[in-house]
């Protein structure tokens, strides 16, 4: 009799024990609100690595929040002009953007540092400065003035020097050149005698074809091949000394970000950190293959002469020092950037550069 009672007690007790577990799931779900954000990219859909980085962030945020927080990415020009992404986020008309801060140097030239400056930091060095050298803190200090917060979100690695309708052999050949180029590099080339302009990626080909511009730089072989520049400007120069690494950022409206639960904020940080590491790896796989195809198709691979590089180095320092003399914040960030650059350059000359100088050529010449 006792054993039968105990069995019945155990059987009837089991559902009761399960009740708290059954109730827990909806209780937790209620703490995770449904949130929908729109993201405007500064890049067209056919620049797949650039644009897909924004899509990757949106997908990972959704996965990390069980689909409760969704970010939908739109290419440049669809819900906001490609080069006005920061303005859209600042106004709150769009919650977030994936863009390059140097597109907005008209607001403050110091914004260039957080993407790239001529003869600045490569992708690895820039990561170190942003994460542990105080760079990201300096950027978000600026972003607060635009009602925004930023997260590093991808780097192209060292870029190419652009596509030119004619050869550029000497410093004099730069004079009078109509060059599509972004960031402070435009001011450097202007000092060298060129006319610089910023043209959205979607309009570069047509501008080259019509002769509105004589030359254009964008990113590197993978993107440049997709945009077809070799057909209208066959001279392909290296290196893009003004972008030894170009860092992009996920920029969110500050009020919209502040309203998020803590775990949604963490999801953004995690998704952006993953995307930040993935982009340069994707380019390092895609660019060598694209460069081979471009050269095989008739692109003329050329390298800047040392006199041109030396003239650009001098012009860069002149531009930076003049801006620092007019803008106290620019001066403060320049001091941080230069101090870090000089230290890491010294170290990488000993470690990375000594290895690269031998191994990169030995792989093709030593038998």
Account of the 3D structure:
α7 packs across α12 and α9 (about 220-225) crosses α11 (about 260-295). This protein has 13 helices and 11 strands. The chain is of the alpha/beta class and about 375 residues long. β6, α7 (about 185-190) and β7 form a beta-alpha-beta unit. The longest helix is centred in the C-terminal third of the chain and has 38 residues, at about 330-365. The chain has a 6-stranded mixed sheet. It has a 5-stranded mixed sheet with strand order 2-1-3-10-4, sandwiched between helices.
Radius of gyration: 25 Å
Fraction of helical residues? 40-55%
Q: What's the helix-strand series?
A: HEHEHEHHEEHEHEHEHEEHHEHH
Structural class label: alpha/beta
Would you tell me the overall average pLDDT? 92
Strand line-up of the largest beta sheet: 7-6-8-5-9-11
Shape: globular
**What's the N-to-C terminus distance?**
90 Å
Instruction: Flag low-confidence runs.
Output: 1-28
Give the amount of beta strand, in percent.
5-15%
> Could you tell me the number of beta strands?
11
Biggest β-sheet, characterized? 6 strands, mixed
Number of helices: 13
